[in-house]
Amino acid sequence: MQPALIVTGGSRGIGAATALLAAQRGYAVAVNYTRHAAAAEAVVSQIRTAGGSAIAVQADVADEAQVLAMFRQVDTALGRLSGLVNNAGVVDRAERLDAMDMQRLRRMFDINVLGSFLCARQAVLRMSTRHGGVGGAIVNVSSVAARLGGSGQYVDYAAAKGAIDTFTVGLAREVATEGIRVNAVRPGIIETEIHASGGQPNRARKLAPTIPVQRPGTAMEVAHSIVWLLSQEASYTTGAILDVSGGR
């Protein structure tokens, strides 16, 4: 049976690229989405057309009940879980902290931080040798914003991704003797739909001159790093945070 992988936020951008590449490398992929069912089904269709195995699974990662249901669905449909990519995340419009309301802050941390915690917890319960599993790998998608701070734009997003960096290191050490590796990638400016969701659809191109390589990255360039960290080629890598940022 193919190893099963869950990619949260897998319907678009980095998540979709990761799902497609992972399927090419032999994973049966659960493409998680919150609202964009058609986009998720399109990713699944591409995988199946190429001879791979995939399902689309709806769940808001900030809702514990929905996360539990998603993992149960994957257990039934795809079998033993081997990997998790915590990619689901949100950004918001550029604002200073003194203009941010509580609704924005709760959404930012509920999805970007607590969602990753909830999904990782369920993955550990399935993959850890302590719980009868045979091991596996978790890759968290952070952001270079965790290093840069996001000042004047989205310090909330940057802080949430900083929490993901710390979570990655801590969880990696916690489960290192239980067959689970935990790593993170920190994308820089990547040409995806997330910029439009923050009200800046041309942000990636506008910022190109500030990037040492003078261009934004692609979702597939990030996906290659994620899939490598999932693979046995990275068998001695855990607790690592890999910048995929064009030198930014």
CATH architecture: 3-Layer(aba) Sandwich
Distance, first to last CA:
40 Å
Helix and strand pattern: EHEHEHEHEHHEHHHE
Sheet with most strands: 7 strands, parallel
Q: How are the strands ordered across the major sheet?
A: 3-2-1-4-5-6-7
CATH class: Alpha Beta
Round the mean pLDDT to the nearest integer and report it: 95
Radius of gyration: 17 Å
How many individual domains?
Answer: 1
Please report the total strand number as a whole number: 7
Look at the structure and name the CATH superfamily: NAD(P)-binding Rossmann-like Domain
Class per helix and strand makeup: alpha/beta
Shape: globular
CATH topology: Rossmann fold
Extract low-pLDDT stretches: none
Alpha plus pi helix count: 9
Classify the beta-strand content into a percent band: 15-25%
Helical amount among residues, as a percent range?
40-55%
Description:
The protein has 248 residues and is of the alpha/beta class. It has helices at residues 13-24, 37-49, 64-78, 102-127, 145-148, 155-174, 194-197, 203-206, 219-230; strands at 4-7, 28-33, 53-58, 81-86, 136-141, 180-187, 241-244. The protein has a 7-stranded parallel beta sheet, sandwiched between helices. Helix 1 (13-24) links the parallel strand 1 (4-7) and strand 2 (28-33).
Which terms would index this structure?
248 residues; alpha/beta; Rossmann fold; seven-stranded parallel beta sheet; 44% helix
Summarize the structure.
The chain is built from nine helices and seven strands, in the order βαβαβαβαβααβαααβ. It has helices at 13-24, 37-49, 64-78, 102-127, 145-148, 155-174, 194-197, 203-206, 219-230, and strands at residues 4-7, 28-33, 53-58, 81-86, 136-141, 180-187, 241-244.
